[in-house]
Amino acid sequence: MTFRRKTAQRSGVTIKDVARAAGVSDATVSRALNRPDDVSEKTRKLIEAAIAQVSYVPNPIARAMKSGRTYTIGALIPTLDHAIFAKFISSLEAELDKEGYSLVVAVTDADPDLETHKAQKLIDMGIEGLVVSGLAHNNALIEKANRFHIPLVATSYYEPDAQLPTIGYDNSATAQMGLQFLADLGHQKILILHGPTANNDRTLSRIEGLKAQRGTANLEFIETTLDLEGAERALAPNPLEASAIFCMSDILAIGALFHLQRRGLRVPDEMSLMGFDDLEFSAHTNPPLTTIHLPIVEMGQRSAQEICAFLRGDRDITAAELMPEIITRGSTRRAEEPS
Q1: What fold, for 171-294?
Q2: What is the pTM of this model?
């Protein structure tokens, strides 16, 4: 069977045709499409019936040219390979949709120059707001956004005095919370497994927080790639003299769990293991992973709400601190308990 491409044909139906079918003015139809709350329910239903009757399809390009609005928000994220970013984007998009906005996502590979280039492409598309990860960005990106009066929101980070409004959590304090949890269980030698720090201020902040609190325990830091294989490469040559491993992501923690099991070490009897993210599948490992829950869904919702409120003229975008929490499961235990 051969499938032939069909060229879409526009019917040429306009707002005037809808107005004629509904028995109302062109302005009333336009108001019902753009500001439905300004039209009575009876009139709105009449217009909806007329739209169906004449098969009217709004032209988004013409609408944008006429109104000067695209109702599109951009998001720049380091990667879509990790579930935490996908979860955030899903939450952000769903909340924007409620407000009548669309979302365009660009992946930066944690490269500041690529991020600036993609920001320009999004600006050229006509985005009205931009969401980024963390605070480490080229000045050129911020200057571009300011030049075109595009509001910026930095996520996965909370710093009330930062140049950009931040919506997220205190990465340093959150890491310290996890370290204190392990120290309270009696662990004095703890291995810290983390991803690359280059161009990642979130990971760097976590490490700096741990180093500032290292009097709580004897810490060893290992940097590796942020994937299952990275955990294997980091742990394979290590004698594992620590009694606990604290990973700065659940991906690394699950990779560490697989490695420990291949090595014949029982978790948590011989090694406690803790993650950072609370990904959905972390509750279903064997044993289930103790981790730090990050409020990713709330972060996506709040980011969308703040940008949309700003674009409506309701208020300025304000920083918001969201609170992580420790989720205790079966991969940790007290260090002094007998095996």
Answers
A1: Rossmann fold (3.40.50)
A2: 0.81
